[in-house]
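Need residues for this backbone.
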């Protein structure tokens, strides 16, 4: 993209494609520098566990995940862009090391990604997914408590009830 000029729709489509390619290529700490050209130095990242600002903080957040898990795979299953805003549907699989998981855990979620209209870099990335069911619900004891609360809230009906 031309410095100072507003990005066109095609420019933003390319920026989104590059960002998705980087995300899908991440799998360990060594690959985190691939974020540098596609993420603004002042990016804000949020998810159910984090709210950080800055590229270095984003990399630390991702590094924490890579250090706590292996067999990490992130796949974007759908995307929609309107102006500088994009929505990504995704599936992530990983095997938590400390929790004794024998097989990967799968998480499904949605990301809302905001691009800078001039540079095409990501300035905001917010992940939305059900941490209660997809993460905490798998933990010993806590998972049982969460399932019980869900059943009570559903009146004994619906999923898990």
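Answer:
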């Amino acid at each position: 993209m031309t410095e100072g000029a507003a990005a066109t729709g095609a420019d933003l489509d390319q920026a989104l494609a590059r960002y998705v390619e980087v995300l899908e290529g991440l799998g360990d700490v060594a690959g985190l520098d691939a974020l540098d050209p596609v993420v603004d130095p002042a990016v804000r990242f949020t998810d159910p566990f984090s709210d950080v600002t800055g590229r270095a903080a984003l990399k630390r957040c991702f590094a924490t995940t890579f250090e706590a898990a292996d067999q990490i795979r992130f796949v974007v299953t759908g995307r929609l862009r309107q102006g500088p805003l994009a929505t990504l549907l995704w599936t992530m699989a990983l095997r938590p090391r400390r929790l004794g998981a024998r097989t990967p855990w799968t998480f499904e979620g949605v990301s809302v990604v905001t691009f800078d209209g001039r540079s095409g870099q990501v300035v905001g990335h917010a992940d939305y997914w059900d941490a209660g069911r997809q993460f905490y619900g798998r933990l010993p004891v806590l998972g049982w408590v969460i399932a019980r609360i869900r059943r009570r809230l559903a009146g004994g009906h619906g999923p898990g009830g």
